[in-house]
Amino acid sequence: MSYHLQPFAQTGLDETLLEYLIKEHESQRVPAFERYWSYYRNSLQLIETRTQAGRREWAWRPAQYDGLPTRLKSSETGTPAKEVVIENDIAWRLHALVDYMAGREVQLASTAADASVRQQINRILEAALTAFGGVRLLQQAALLGAVYGHVDFILRTDALLETAADSTGSFGKSGSSGGDLSSMGSAIAAAPSNHVTDQGLPHDAAVMRALDQMTLETVEAPRAIPLLNPHDYRTLDAYLISYHRPRNEIQKESAGRFMARLGRWALGAPVGKTSADRGPQVGSLAGKRATTHVMEILSADHRQVYEDGQLVYDGVNRIGALPVVHVQDGTQPYYFDGLGEVEPLIPLQDELNTRLSDRANRVTLQSFKMYLGKGIDGFGERPIGPGQMWMTDNLDSSIEEFGGDAASPSEEAHIREVREALDKASSVTPLAAGVIQGNLRVGSLSSENALRISLLGILSKIERKRQRYSEGLASVFGLLLEALDQAGIMRTQPADRGIDVLWTAAVPEDQSKKLEEAVLKRDLGVPRQRILSELGYGPDELGDA
């Protein structure tokens, strides 16, 4: 495997460092990230097990089964497994958090000083956000960030800028500055604001063609390998994306590997295949689906792509900046990785599953009842059932009942305390998912303030998350405006590329109070555009500012 890393010499990246980064990532970071995802998804896996009689069979098990203590699992000696209860108490909390945070449309508002430039940029931002996925993009990013602790956005503009650099391309370059447009981009100002396509996007050929040549992707943590600046952990010198891409062909299993697996099977050892890589069972040489290892290296000046160690793309990064924006879901000072929602919940989830399984085993063993009959002839010969009667002349006869599921207050208290600990660790209570428990009644939530107090923890967390994601979105779409400037579509100055991200309130608000606040803000001199944006009106509905 040979890498041609001379274009990245200024970042200090060489072949030795690259191989070290890949090995460190695959051996340390990826297993942790996969564990977080498995606890969130709790997906079923097909595992090879052995019955009490020693016969092999395949059984479905949830991912969180691995966190149970050994005493609750079946062993290789054929000991029957005990009752196991797995209740995924993580997924619904993350789903509720994402729904509150990014469940509705957001608006991107330009902060450019010139009103005409601001209006044109707002229309471009609205079209770009819709083209890149809108709410779906934000929900995916929020979910990945909550699971892994951080998420990266990467804006790909190579196709656009390469077309613009080609003298025969359709994108022209303009020497104008400020809010002036190129000859093709000037169609934005000429097109009527209510002229839209079938998809509801502004009907402008230049902008739409440019957006078709750009993509905005979310990069999940298991694929991302950052190369940080040695003097500032917040600065990326280079960015690596490593993953295995499946191919539409089958990779034959080598004879040596097959014989080794066959030998383990003959000796009674586990074959070592799960539903993820099970493929054909022993006795077949069909193999499994082939994959290609893809390695992409990005810096502010250059971009390379390798497939199975072979260089397949080598080009200049024309935008002149690393097109990657890193967003920490939870702030972790002095670390590139952020704090996620899953990691602190894993020990509590394991404890909850353990105690629920213990309770299920206790109930299984104690749920039956026994009866002791005294002084009744033939009591043991008749079955016990509804409507069964015994007759006797013995006045001292009696029937005593014992057994059955007895109350276990300490067990119930412990399970309740574990659930409360999950509530505190996640700041997401059952109320956030619409579950009203205990003495809490709907009548006590009749006012907006009471609802906010009940959801104070999750609302505070959402506000913190929105601040971090707002900074990330502003940086990403600032890069987009810079790319449009370089392509000659929309000429802007760096001061014109500031962006405000306007989120919809997480809980319903009293509209009359919002209107009263809007009037007060207007009297204080707040720009009319900003007030209308906060009220939920889109850029095309603002009118003249």
What does this structure look like?
It is a single chain. The chain is of the alpha+beta class and 545 residues long. Among the domains are: 1-22 and 94-272 and 288-345 and 434-508, no CATH class; 512-545. It contains 14 helices and 14 strands. It has a five-stranded antiparallel β-sheet with strand order 6-7-8-9-10, covered by helices on one side. It has a three-stranded antiparallel β-sheet with strand order 5-4-11. Residues 167-203 and 272-285 have low confidence and may be disordered.
How is the topology of this model organized?
Elements (H helix, E strand, L loop, with lengths): L14 H27 L2 E7 L5 E7 L28 H12 L4 E4 L4 H17 L3 H14 L1 E7 L1 H8 L21 H4 L14 H8 L2 E5 L4 E6 L2 E20 L3 H12 L21 E12 L2 E6 L2 E7 L7 E5 L17 H21 L2 E6 L23 E6 L5 H18 L21 H7 L1 H31 L12 E4 L8 H14 L3 H7 L11
Antiparallel strand pairs: 1-2, 3-14, 4-5, 4-11, 6-7, 7-8, 8-9, 9-10, 12-13
Helix pairs in contact: 2-4, 3-7, 9-10
Shape: flat
Helix content: 25-40%
Strand order of the largest sheet: 6-7-8-9-10
**Low-confidence parts, pLDDT < 50 over ≥5 residues?**
167-203, 272-285
Report the total helices: 14
Give keywords.
single chain, alpha+beta, 14 helices, 545 residues, three-stranded antiparallel sheet
